[in-house]
């Protein structure tokens, strides 16, 4: 069952509860003041959207002794101190590969 978040417009109390989908819009009373709580949809959205996590690629990276030069020449490409290049999406992967002279396929 999904977790639903509720917020009291009167006192600001927040609460999470497990509810069936058919109960998702049923009114819920605030335990602190008794007012009707409202769904807090923003609290239910995950902080980071599910999907592509940042990948640190050694294959696109450079030797650690070349990191300073890489940062100077390619300031828009994220790189760690160990020389690994950060890729945060598929589109970013294609852009970085093309800029570094690799085939993105």
List the helices and strands and how they pair.
Blueprint lengths: L2 E5 L6 E5 L9 E2 L6 E4 L1 H4 L10 E3 L9 H7 L11 E3 L2 H11 L5
Antiparallel strand pairs: 1-2, 1-4, 3-4, 5-6
Describe the fold and architecture:
The chain has two domains: 3-44; 55-100, no CATH class. The protein has three helices and six strands; from the N terminus they run ββββαβαβα. It has helices at 41-44, 67-73, 90-100; strands spanning 3-7, 14-18, 28-29, 36-39, 55-57, 85-87.
Uncertain runs are none
Largest sheet: 4 strands, antiparallel
Instruction: Kindly provide the radius of gyration, computed on alpha-carbon positions and rounded to a whole number of angstroms.
Output: 23 Å
DSSP summary, beta strand count: 6
End-to-end gap: 40 Å
Judging from the principal axes of the Cα atoms, what is the shape? elongated
Task: Give the % helix.
Answer: 10-25%
| Average predicted confidence as pLDDT | 83
* β-sheet strand percentage: 15-25%
Total domain count: 2
Strand order of the largest sheet: 2-1-4-3
The class by helix and strand makeup works out as alpha+beta
Number of helices: 3
Secondary-structure element order, N to C: EEEEHEHEH
What's this, in brief?
The protein is 21% helix and 21% strand.
Short descriptors:
105 residues; alpha+beta; 2 domains; 4-stranded antiparallel beta sheet; two-stranded antiparallel ribbon; 3 helices; 6 strands; 21% helix
